[in-house]
Predict the structure.
Amino acid sequence: MPESNEIRSPGSCTAVVGLQWGDEGKGKVVDLLAEGHDATVRYNGGANAGHSVVVGGERYALHLIPSGILAKGKLAVVGNGVVVDPEKLIEEIEGLERRNVDVSGLVISNRAHVVLDYHKLEDALREDLLAAAKGKSTSGRDSGPGQIGTTRRGIGPAYAEKVNRATALRIGDLVNPDVVRERITLACGVKNAMLQGISGSYTPLNPIDIADRAIECGKRLSPRIRDTTYLLHDLLSEGKRLLFEGANATLLDVDHGTFPYVTSSSCAVSGIGPGTGVPPNRLSRIIGVAKAYSTRVGAGPMPTELFDAVGEGIRTRGREFGTTTGRPRRVGWLDLVALRYSVMINGVDEIALTLLDVLPGVERPRVCTAYRIGDAKTDRFIPDGATLANVEPVYHDLGPIEHGLAACRTFDDLPQNARAYIEFVERFVGAQVTIVGVGPGREQTLVRERR
Ligand code: GDP
Ligand code: IMO
Ligand code: MG
């Protein structure tokens, strides 16, 4: 333990956080930075996340395991704020092992909450009911009124279970079969009573089968289960460097996003404290990740959405199909009003601007600099789903970005209009772009020192 007057331990903390609606390329940025850190830490979300990393031409898709696992000899920590589907986690571990990835550094918080079959069932059931409900849709495309378009991975119901407390199960409980059976029997009793009432075709849950599978997972995962809060503080005391990997993104944050079209966790960096036990004053570097355009999966407003051939071209070139669900992502122009808001919410020091290589071919790239609502104009973001659905974007046009970005290896290699695009973003949002993505590969990343 440190001396009583040594309040601060010497380690450092970097955070990587998504600034839009997810899929900004956080996995790639984390992979890039992992080498210079000792541990990568997930603090929120669950298997709704899909982080792709391309190393040496090989593509890896990570859902629950921190992307830093691909860097050799590092710790990968699943913090208490994550909701863990244990069967999915084991599947992911085994998938990596089959590809000869060393997963010995993976540890899981004993206080992370468990996602079980009934959470996934409830997630899907709620979505189906909302899709079938009659009413006026404010939710965007491909969904019924009020439907959120979730990943159906049980995320919302698992976080609700945590907040409801009595029937929740934590990863640390999995090693105690009596607790597992008792808690799951209690949960199934409550859920059968509730769910049978809302769906005639509902088959009652069998607690014995669910508990047996959970106990089996507990056996498999037990060597990895730890008090990760003390682990992280011990690492900091030893001077180690931690890298926090945000899942989902700021505009999907349950408090700061486009509610109700959000996920159920604190995705912004403010989620690091509750999701790991590492306090906010330990963060020394906050890197916000943004695409050079916008994408969104599922329902909810997206003011700059494109429904034309330009959008289709971006979707095709950017391979904009979900890592987790395979759904085509909605595509739009870069929304700088939203981006500046996310920079503010997270206290972003630096921006990683990804997928810039997708924009060449677009004749007249535009960025949104304000919203019109009726006769009024604002340059402030509106984190409310229904209100944001009624804004009209105000655009600023920029010069066509030159082809051949994928071959650039330094900032100085970037051609004129590409640089002008980056500089416009920097000026508007008030943060420096220090990383630029010009392709999915690790080497297709331009990095520069912070001014
Ligand atoms: P995450 O959820 O934020 O980690 O992002 P995803 O992995 O879901 O989606 C980002 C996609 O873009 C993945 O397919 C990446 O391989 C890819 N990608 C990341 N950075 C770049 C880039 O700079 N250029 C191109 N073309 N693809 C990129
Ligand atoms: P990564 O980490 C993109 C979206 C879903 C849906 C809403 C709620 O890969 O960036 P949920 O299943 O969480 O209840 O769904 O949030 N969503 C994501 N969209 N990337 C993600 O993660 C997402 N995680 C959740 O599509 O609209
Ligand atoms: Mg993703």
